[in-house]
Amino acid sequence: MNERTLVIGSSGNIGKLLVPMLAKAGIPTVAMVRDKSKLERHEGIEIVEADLEKDFGHVFEGCNRVVFCAGSGPDTGLDKTFLVDLWGARKAVAQAKKHGVEQFVMVSSMGAGDPEAGPQAMRPYLIAKHLADEGLIQSGVPYTILRPGQLTDVDGSGRITTTVPEQSDDQKVPREDVASVILETLRKGAPLNEIVDIYQGEEAIEKAIG
Amino acid sequence: MNERTLVIGSSGNIGKLLVPMLAKAGIPTVAMVRDKSKLERHEGIEIVEADLEKDFGHVFEGCNRVVFCAGSGPDTGLDKTFLVDLWGARKAVAQAKKHGVEQFVMVSSMGAGDPEAGPQAMRPYLIAKHLADEGLIQSGVPYTILRPGQLTDVDGSGRITTTVPEQSDDQKVPREDVASVILETLRKGAPLNEIVDIYQGEEAIEKAIG
Predict the structure, then answer these.
(1) Residue B5, strand partner residues
(2) What is the count of structural domains for chain A?
(3) Terminal-to-terminal C-alpha distance of chain A
(4) Rounded Cα gap, residues B121 and A119, in angstroms
(5) How far off is chain B from A27, nearest CA to CA, in Å?
(6) Three-class SS state of A40
(7) Interface test with B, best of A125, A127, A136 (most B CBs within 10 A)
(8) Contact B79 A124 (CB under 8 A)
(9) Where is each NAD(P)-binding domain found (chains A, B) (predicted)?
(10) Beta-bridge partners for B159
């Protein structure tokens, strides 16, 4: 079988919402985590321990789709922004290319398109995300780059917009809706080679995506 | 006149050795610094204030060669490694491309070829240098990438080797010799589209380069 989906960052804030959705949807999945104990078990999900800061090429075996939703998080230093968000992503793309992956879904960020337009404190992170996205685009691996607004932990509504809202107060989106968008892109294998902005909105995710 | 050499990082540890050499060699030079007071005046050197973290495209006017020897230095945080060593270099390359620069001399670092082979503490810096070099190589701007060993402040000997010494104790090079190598690459307009390792050695710089 060569049609599994690899989720890198399975125990992260988006990953832990996405993995049960993939299980429920019956999508064969390999969930990569640094520490198995941090992820609940689900039917149809193979949990594999691996570390983005080390060699992890083995986890790509038998996978034709990849989701990168790993992030160093706000509580770590900028060394992890370099090592995980930027270099970890670059390494994942290199492995995806090597393994002939057919779709690489990158969870990027609002503002990654133009890091210098962002607030000073966010710039290192936005540079990391920008260059991770750039590496994916240049790799030739078919990509879906998602750029969600400010992430929130409220329940998802199942509705989004892919147009950047004018008011900065509206430039946010529940993590649960981002996970639903990822699921939808995997189901449809689309859109490919596009960058999609995601914000809370009025359009049903199934209509907005693909 | 469109044959000036732009030095980005003129008041840095290598830049402040290079600028007087360029003056002495009669090479028309634009020395970019954040703060004019930090650089001695020399005949034939135009000093221009600009900041790598802001817009600096104007300093490229009339320049056909560029030297990037700016560095955030060991006393700043990793935010500056992102903003100066990585993003500043990327911006400089973009401007060089826009202005049709004929040679971009990048002062990179030993270990930038394979950041993960370096010591853990150095990895963020080596990733920044790796991706700065990669951006230059991919830009299409004719490049000379110099990867010096551990930099020292002893007087230059005028002699180097471009082969990595086996003993780690020998993997160093005086900054003054690096500046002499830069001068030589500019004089010859060569080598182009090559990565050159530089360590203390036995070969005269004029013979080793170009």
Answers:
(1) B29, B65
(2) 1
(3) 25
(4) 27
(5) 34
(6) coil
(7) A127
(8) yes
(9) 9-187
(10) B204
Q: In angstroms, what CA-CA distances link A68 with A60, A128, A202?
A: 12, 14, 26
Amino acid identity of residue A185, one-letter, is T
User: What is the residue range of B73's domain?
Assistant: 5-208
Distance CA B143, CA B92 (A): 13
The Cα A37–Cα B136 span in angstroms is: 43
Q: Residue B1: its pLDDT value, please?
A: 53
User: Would the CB atoms of A131 and B131 count as touching at under 8 Å?
Assistant: yes
**A24 Cβ partners below 8 Å, 6+ apart?**
none
C-alpha A47/C-alpha A45 separation (Å) is 6
**In contact, A123 and B83? CB cutoff 8 Å:** yes
* CA distance linking residue A53 with residue A34, whole number of Å: 10
Query: What CATH number corresponds to the domain at position A201?
Result: 3.40.50.720
- For B145-165, write each residue's pLDDT tens digit: 999 999 999 999 999 999 999
pLDDT score, position A73: 75
Read off the tokens for A194: 């596009």
Q: ipTM value, please give it.
A: 0.93
Neighbouring CB atoms inside 10 A of B138's CB total 11
* B-chain residues near A72 (CB < 8 A): none
Residue A74: how many other CB atoms lie within 10 Å: 6
Token representation of residue B80: 């500056």
